[in-house]
Amino acid sequence: MTPAAFLAFSGLVTLAAISPGPAVLMAARTGLTEGFRTGAMLAAGIGLGAVVWASAAMFGLNIVFAAAPALLWALKLGGGAYLVWMGWHLWHGARTPLVTEDARPVPRSALSAFRLGLFTQLANPKPAVVFSAIFLGTVPRGTPLWVYAALLAVIFTAETLWNSLVARIFSLDRTRARYISLKTIIDRSFGAALAALGVKIAAT
Predict the structure, then answer these.
(1) What tens digit of pLDDT does each residue of 151-200 get?
(2) Range of the domain at 91
(3) How many domains does the chain have?
(4) CB 204 within 8 A of CB 140
(5) I need a surface site. Which of 20, 43, 59, 157 has the fewest CB within 10 A?
């Protein structure tokens, strides 16, 4: 795997972590209701859940690649199309105010926060599709196992750091209003970037 491909992979998984979804929503809400320390533990659970999804995508892709290359081509198209759809969805909903209400119980301890983050991530099947597309678009066949381990570490780090940052931002009253005021610009920037990456993955 070339350094350029590794950087591309890191950029894609970072965008996937940043993309608004159930995990980011839960990190924001936990920061608001339980504070940063609990939010950081929840973020670690989210990171582990992402590693589980990425591992499943990684091993599944190896089997499919060996058995039916045509299915991998179809998966590239499907994954790229999903990223384009997600980018359009972010752009289209950029002006919608951030919703922080959630009916689920909030964590009361570090362990319960970790479990909540893990279960929130595992309950969302979207990362499996996104990671499948990312692995197909950036990781060449025959990549050594230690490189895959490093890539999983990148995924864990990106998910944990981003969701910890979200929890931190939303735990501070003075920065929460500023963050929300930039939501339209941020969502549209992410949406455009994800759509462009989706087209690139589908075309390669």
Answers:
(1) 999 999 999 999 999 999 888 877 667 766 777 786 788 778 778 877 87
(2) 3-203
(3) 1
(4) no
(5) 59
